[in-house]
Input
Amino acid sequence: MMGPAHSLSGAAAWLGVGAAAAAAGHTMPWPVLVVGALITAGAALAPDLDHKSATISRAFGPVSKGVCEIVDKLSYAVYKATKGPGDPRRTGGHRTLTHTWLWAVLTGGAASVAAITGGRWAVLAILFVHLVLAVEGLLWRAARVSSDVLVWLLGATSAWILAGVLDQPGNGSSWLFEAPGQEYLWLGLPIVLGALVHDIGDALTVSGCPILWPIPLGRKRWYPLGPPKAMRFRAGSWVELKVLMPLFMILGGVGAAAALNVI
Output
C-alpha cells in the first residue's frame, strides 16, 4: 500500500479499538481516542523505514533518509543471516525485518518504556514524531507542497497542546494503566497497532508480507503471507484508491461515533 492508505487504515483501526472499548464498558476519554488515532496513523508509516523512497524517508529531511538507509542495510543483513532454504535471494531489506509482528511489538514496547521512564520530554518526542508522520500520511497533498519546517512546527505545536490536554485529570494520561508511575504506558499500543495494520495492508498486495517471521512456514522463514493471488492488488492501484481508502474513511467514522457513544 501507499502512505495515505496506510495512515487511513491505521487511524480507522484505532477508532475501531475505541468502539470495542466502549462496547466493553471501558470508554476511552476523547483525547485518548484522538491522540491514539493520530499516533496509529503515523505509526502505520513506520515499517517502511526499510525503504529509501517511502513517505517516512522524506518526513524529517536528511535525518530520516539516513535512518532509512541504515534500517534497509540492517534488515537486509538480518534477512541474509536468517533466511531459510526456500527463501529467495534479495538485493535489499524492504519488507523484511520491519514488516514483522516482532518489530511491531519491540517498537511499541520501547515507546512505552520511554514514555514512563523518560518523563514529559519523552512523551513529547513520541507525539512529535508520530504527529509529523500523521500529517505526511493523512494530509499528504498539503504536506508535499508545504515547507518541511512548517510540518515540523505543526507537529511540535500539536504535540505540546495534546500532551497538555492529556495531562488534565480524567483526560487519559493514565488510561488503561492506572497505577502510579504508569502514566502514558498506553502510548505503545497505537504504535504496535499501526505497524501491524501496515503489515496486513502490505499482505494484501501482490508481494505479500512476512508478518510471522521468525516463525518458519515450510522451507521459508520469511514466508510472504497474503490472500489468494487472485484477491491481491498492486500498491497504488484503483482498488486501493477507489475502494479501500473510502472504506477506511467510512469505517473510521463509524468507529469514532461508536467510541463516543453517538450511535
In short: Residues 238-259 form the longest helix (22 residues).
